[in-house]
Automatic annotation (TrEMBL):
Transmembrane segments: none annotated. InterPro entries: FAD/NAD-bd_sf, Geranylgeranyl_reductase, GGR_cat. Residues 210-275 form the Digeranylgeranylglycerophospholipid reductase catalytic domain. The keyword Flavoprotein applies. GO terms for molecular function: oxidoreductase activity. Keywords: FAD, Flavoprotein, Lipid biosynthesis, Lipid metabolism, Oxidoreductase, Phospholipid biosynthesis, Phospholipid metabolism. This is NAD(P)/FAD-dependent oxidoreductase. The keyword Isomerase does not apply. One of its GO terms (biological process) is phospholipid biosynthetic process.
Length: 487
C-alpha cells in the first residue's frame, strides 16, 4: 500500500520545523513531507497553553551549523537580542566562568511563525490541531501516526515511510513505542528539571553586572535559590529580561528540610526576582510578540540523549530524544544540530529504499560525532554538582578551574580534572577534598565514556553489548557520585 507521505514530522515545535526543512533541503524538495502539530495555526509549536516556555538563549555556533548546511538563516525578529556568551557565577559570586561564546536571545513566539512560513515555502505540508496519541505499525515497521482531529473531533490517521518524532519531552509516541526494545521509553524523575520563567520589562536598579548584564546571559549556581538546577537572568534588551530558574524536585525537598522552608518553583521564582538589585518594578511583557508567552513553567530533561534513537520507520529528535545538554538544559543547540543531521540521514535511507532500524542507524553515528559523544560525561558532572553545597561549588570554581578547563567548558565539554591531586596544591578542608576527588572521578569516567561513544556500534547488532557496558559504567558512576554527597 502506498503511504500518504514520504515523511511525517510529528510535532511542529522548534526541532520539528528544522527537521522538516532539512529533509526538504537534502531531498531537493523531492520528498512529500507533512508536519503535524496539536496547536492551532495561530500558535504553532507551542509547548503548552502558557506558551513556548524557554530561556530563549542559543549559541551562534549552533545556528551557523544549521544555516551553513541547509541554508536557512535566522535573523530579526526571531533573533531578538545578541549576546557575547553565558556567564556562570559561583554561589558567592566571586568566580564567573564564561561559556558558549557569541549567541542569541530568540523570540520563541515569533520564531515558529517565521519558521513555518519558511517551511511552507520549502514545500512542506501542515496539519494543525491534531492531537497525536500513537503510532501505526506493520510488523517491525512504524508506518503512520494516529490521533484525534481537534477541529472535527474525528479520528485521524496518516501514513508515511518515516515518522520523525519531534513531539517534545513528554512524547506519547516514544512512551508507548512497540517496535523497539533498544529505545528507552521513559527516564528517571531526577533526570527532569521543573523550570519556569517570566519575560519582563523593568526599571533599572543598581548597576550590578552580576545581576543583569545586557551583553551576557547570567547563570547563578546556588543550591538555596535553585536547588539541583540554576537560576538565570538573560537579557532581551537594556530593560527587558527572561528571568527564571530550574530545580530538581528531590533536591528541592532536601533544601526545604535543611532550611526549614516550604518553597516551590513559583515561590523560588518570586524570591529570585525580588532579590535582584539591578531589576526593579518588573512587569510581564505586554508586547504583541510576547503576549501569549510571557510567563510559564515546563519540564526539561538533563541526561544523555536516548541510548537508541531509531527503530523501523521511526526516528527521535530534540527534546523527545532527551537532547538538552545535561549541565545547562540547553536544548536548542542540539536540536539545531540533530535536526539538520537527521534530514540527510532520512533522505539517504529513503533513497536507498531501506527505512528499517538498520537503514536509519547512521543517524546515531553522525549525531554522536558532532555532539552526542559528550553528553553522558556531562550527565555525571551534573549529578556531581547537584551533590555539592554552595561552599563546595564556590571553592571548586575558584580553585580548581584553570584556563584549559574553562576552555573545555566553553566548548560544552567536560573539563579534565584528572591531574587535580598531582598539582601539589593545598586543598583546604575535608569538604573541598571531596570536591577535588569528585571532579577527578567524573573526569576519569568522562574519558571512558567519550571513548565508548566513539565505539558506538556501526549497526544495530552490536547495540546490546555496547549498551550493557554503558549502563554498567553509568550505574557504578552514579553510585560512586552519591558517596560524595554531603547533603
Ligand atoms: C523553562 C525552560 C527554559 C529553557 N531554556 C533554554 C535556553 O535558554 N536555551 C536552550 O537552548 N534551551 C532551553 N530550554 C530547552 C528548549 O526549550 C527545548 O530544548 C526546545 O524547545 C525543544 O524543542 P522541541 O521542538 O524538541 O520540543 P518542543 O518545543 O516541546 O515542541 C514539541 C511540539 O510538539 C507538539 N506536540 C507535543 N505532543 C504532541 C501530540 N501528542 N500531538 C501533536 N503535537 C504534539 C507540541 O505542542 C510542540 O509544538 C528550556 C526549557 C525550559 C522548559
Amino acid at each position: 500500500m502506498d503511504a500518504d507521505y514520504d515523511v511525517i514530522v510529528a510535532g511542529g515545535g522548534l526541532t520539528g520545523t528544522v527537521a522538516a526543512q532539512s529533509i526538504s533541503y537534502y531531498s531537493n524538495q523531492n520528498l512529500s513531507i507533512l508536519s503535524i502539530d496539536r496547536n492551532s495555526e495561530m500558535f504553532p509549536g507551542r509547548k503548552s497553553n502558557p506558551g513556548w516556555t524557554c530561556g530563549d538563549a542559543c549559541s551562534k555556533e549552533a545556528v551557523d551549523f544549521m544555516t551553513e548546511r541547509i541554508k536557512v538563516p535566522w535573523t530579526s525578529p526571531e533573533i531578538e537580542h545578541d549576546v557575547k556568551g553565558v556567564m556562570a557565577f559561583s554561589p558567592d559570586k566571586e568566580t564567573a566562568i564564561p561559556f558558549d561564546g557569541d549567541g542569541y536571545m530568540l523570540n520563541r513566539q515569533k520564531l515558529p511563525e517565521i519558521q513555518n512560513a519558511r517551511t511552507k515555502k520549502m514545500g512542506v505540508n501542515f496539519d494543525f490541531e491534531i492531537n497525536l496519541t500513537g503510532l501505526i505499525y506493520d510488523g517491525p515497521q512504524v508506518i503512520g501516526v494516529q490521533g484525534i482531529n481537534n477541529k472535527t473531533k474525528q479520528p485521524y490517521k496518516k501514513t508515511a515511510k518515516v515518522i520523525v518524532d519531534a513531539t517534545g519531552v513528554t512524547s506519547m509516541l516514544r512512551n508507548q513505542l512497540e517496535n523497539s526494545t533498544k529505545i528507552e521509553k521513559k527516564i528517571e524523575r531526577r533526570d527532569l528539571e521543573s523550570t519556569g520563567r517570566h519575560i519582563m520589562y523593568f526599571d533599572k536598579g543598581e548597576e550590578d553586572l552580576t545581576d543583569f548584564d545586557p551583553d551576557f546571559c547570567i547563570i547563578h549556581l546556588d543550591q538555596d535559590i535553585a536547588p539541583g538546577g540554576y537560576a538565570w537572568v538573560f537579557p532581551k534588551a537594556d530593560n527587558k529580561v527572561n528571568i527564571g530558574l530550574g530545580v530538581e524536585k528531590s533536591i528541592l525537598d532536601q533544601r526545604n528540610k535543611r532550611l526549614g522552608k516550604n518553597d516551590n518553583l513559583a515561590s523560588l521564582m518570586e524570591e529570585y526576582l525580588q532579590r535582584n538589585k539591578a531589576i526593579k518594578n518588573a512587569k510581564l511583557s505586554q508586547d504583541p510578540e510576547d503576549i501569549n508567552n510571557n510567563t510559564g513553567v515546563f519540564q526539561v530533561s538533563v541526561r544523555r540523549q536516548n541510548d537508541c534513537m531509531v527503530s523501523g520507520g521511526y526516528i527521535l529528535v530534540g527534546d523527545s530524544a532527551w537532547m538538552p545538554k545535561p549541565i545547562d538544559a540547553g536544548g536548542i543547540g542540539p536540536a539545531l544540530i540533530a535536526g539538520t543531521i537527521l534530514g540527510k540521514n532520512v533522505v539517504d535511507a529513503i533513497e536507498a529504499n531501506d527505512v528499517t532500524e538498520k537503514g536509519l542507524w547512521q543517524y546515531h553515528l553522525d549525531f554522536i560525532k558532532e555532539y552526542g559523544y559528550k553528553t553522558a560525561g556531562l550527565e555525571l558532572f551534573r549529578r556531581l554538582v547537584q551533590t555539592l553545597t554552595n561552599e563546595q561549588i564556590s571553592y571548586g570554581m575558584k580553585h580548581f578551574l584553570g584556563n584549559v578547563d574553562v576552555e573545555a567548558i566553553s566548548k560544552g565539554e567536560h573539563p579534565d580534572f584528572s591531574g587535580l591531586s598531582k598539582l601539589g596544591m593545598i586543598i583546604r578542608g575535608a569538604m573541598n577534598k571531596t570536591v577535588a576527588n569528585g571532579l577527578k572521578y567524573t573526569s576519569q569516567q568522562n574519558q571512558w565514556l567519550v571513548e565508548h561513544y566513539g565505539n558506538y556500534p556501526k549497526e544495530p547488532e552490536g547495540f546490546e553489548e555496547w549498551e550493557k557496558s554503558l549502563h554498567k559504567t553509568l550505574d557504578e558512576s552514579f553510585a560512586k557520585i552519591a558517596t560524595f554527597s554531603k547533603n
